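== Folding task for one protein ==

=== Format: two labelled lines per protein ===

==== Paired sequence and structure tokens ====
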Amino acid sequence: MSDAVDLAVTYAMHDALRRELAHLDRISTAADRDPRQVLATAAGWTLFKKALHAHHTAEDDALWPPLRQNLAGRPKDLALLEVMEVEHAAITPVIRAIDAALTDPDPGSLRLGQLTDALTRGLAGHLKHEEDAAHPLVRRALTAEQWDHFSRIQDQYIHRDAPLLLPWLLDGADEPTAHRLLARLPAPAYAACTAHWIPAYAALDRWSPATPA
């Protein structure tokens, strides 16, 4: 069934998440500014959380369940899906802890650094594990109809914040992947994305602290 499953958009999402993890690592280790001030107001942190939530929620809702159904009676493969879900669940508390540290009047820079390091290592490890182990399983076991359903669900989650998340996802994508992403849009959204959303995103310094009004 490998021809039925096109993982280009999923890889674009993974690449975009890795790109943002690199920014997060740079900010959390910078000596010239307070990382709490940056993360508390930077658009990049908010965009990262929205994109990660959209991607993981779509997988939890519409990818792992049909895959589990198709793999009934194959305990080794089912165990891998359990690990995928456990890895998802382990990331959410770290993000919440980072947000809590940003509002704590005295969390200590060491604590925040430990949390951002845990997020970077945990998510990067999960993305690689998913690509190495789960994606081949998806290609072998998922039907075209099931993959199309997952893709639609993921699109729905992304499109809730389309003016921000679509340009974010397109940032750095190669031309064929960008074409796939844009081709999925209705004509009005395509026009808005190319004429307004992408230029607005390009002008956004997303990993700098917001300037007070």
Notes: The CA atoms of residues 2 and 139 lie 4 Å apart. The mean pLDDT is 91. The domain at 2-202 is CATH 1.20.120 (Four Helix Bundle (Hemerythrin (Met), subunit A)).
